[in-house]
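#data-curation
PF: Archiving a pair of folding outputs for the training set. Convention for this channel: one message per protein, sequence first, structure tokens after, nothing in between. First:
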Amino acid sequence: MVKKLKLNLIRNKFREDGIYIFGSFDLQKYFKVLQNTANLFINRNVKQGNILKLRKGLYMFVGTYVSEMLIANRVYMPSYVSFEYALMFYGIIPETVYTITSATTRLTREFIINNISYSYHCIKREAFTGYIKKDFQGQDAFIAEPEKALVDYLYFVAIGQKVLNERLELKGINKKKLIKYAELFKRRTLLKLINQIYVKNRRNRKIIY
């Protein structure tokens, strides 16, 4: 006899176990059903508007909160949130950033999910480090440390693929850690750019009497 999957039962079970993004494999594993049964359940509920397709093989329940950071991590793996979005998160740049930007070791890609843009920039494997796991409203996701997010961003400025933001806030940045991460990219222009930014930052400081 073929098992029948029930929407509310699955939604509640996954919520209890902290599963916010899932695929047919998760249904097979948790509810002991065949792949065909799992796929039919997902496809039917996507059509009915109960399940949202994030990308091929990845889904979430409509009406269930899922952190944009977690979505960014899972949609394109391996990856961690970095660049402008992380800089905004830490207050290193003052502007509001609407695209969720991430670093990956895979090809550069962009996805539009639920009207939100998720972009991924490829960095070398040696530099794929400097990220931490943080809790975003009860959901864990990987995001770069402030220094690594800044280095990732400045690397692309150094190679001419991003424009330098002139309003970088360096007050909370650990310069030694910044340099340590920059050295992983093995690019002199990056180290030179960091030095220029710090020199300019010192010149712009004004003493208020």
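PF: Second:
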Amino acid sequence: MEGLILLRTSHLPEDDRSEICVSSPKNFYIDTYSTLSIDGGTPYIKNDSLIKQCLKKEKIIKQKSDEHSRMLFPIFSGKEIECIIDIHGFIPTTDLQHIIEAIVNIYSNFLSVLHDNEHDTLTGLLNRKSFDHKFATQLNNLSNESHFDLPDDIEQRKTHNENQAWLAILDIDHFKKINDGFGHIYGDEVLLLFSNLLKSTFRRDDLIFRFGGEEFIVIVNNPTNQNSFNIFERFRKKVQDFEFPQIGKITVSIGIVKIDNLTPPITLIEKADQALYFAKDNGRNQTQSYHELIDSGDIKDKETTDDIELF
């Protein structure tokens, strides 16, 4: 066997790329595929003709010539192909192929159970039930990144400053009017299309949750407040400019807060919620940063307010 590569596929129809999850040998994928620019340290490849066949036909694809052989096994999560095992230089016997297929099917069933437990049925986004675990992992990663054996090392401190995460709460404006005026079927279509806009805007490593009803939470890794603010502003404008079938134009209000591993998740959500409701109360269709609102005096620090109320 020349090499084996595990690809994680995109669920967006317009995204003609896959992410490299595993490559054995380690750099085998570099000489095998047409690699794309690296996004956040994650290597991606442009889907070739066999990968496209595997995705389209949703079955095992084989290719054999005098010089090369290749076999692709699709791995499903629910009804979608989550991953593809791409084996080069090896065509198994019929019995061995059946064994590989059985192992792939077992793993696919395992992924499907995990997917159904963690994802929203309508939109396919992560659900509220999975939020605590995913967020705890995010906080743990930040905590690990904040520990250095050499605290005086400038480069390490610089790297730490770049490892920051932000939480945003997004709420579709006047969503009740959509349900009341057009019916819940069209309301569900808006949620689906809105979710697709989220998936196409944010990176695969970002966490996107449907938190409940028309409310969503997004967690992104980004170095600065301004960069994060601009990311969510671009998304807000993307929603504003999108034409929703039958409904027309809708807008979204967004509140963001910087994540730190010393603040409980519930407090961070409350802070993002404060920024969100400031946006709602001041015209909607805008992005507001909790920290900027505190600095400007437009809202008060809830933790400080709560401490005062205790005495």
